[in-house]
Input
Amino acid sequence: MHELSIAQSLIGLVEREAEKEGFTRVLEIRLRMGEYAGIIPDCLREFFPLAAAGTKAEGAALEIETLPARFRCPCGYEGGVERRAACCPVCGSTAIRMVSGREFFVEDLKVE
Output
């Protein structure tokens, strides 16, 4: 349920940007988030219209691109891993470290 507060924060960011840049309406918001960002995209999409009501983003499309996680292993492997196994697919080590996959940011705004 924290997706509602995330949607509200997103709208706050958009409103501040509108004040700074002078646009009057947001047509589309494109987000990029890592698969381990801890945000459920469908829930964010559900709460977004509630948060956007009465703002410059009311009626805006919300596009979300999910970025795959990448891990690094001491053996030199860098890439995805099987969630269930949580180990390096090359050497089997569990000493893997996540190097990306928790991102969450606004990629682009379409405004008028």
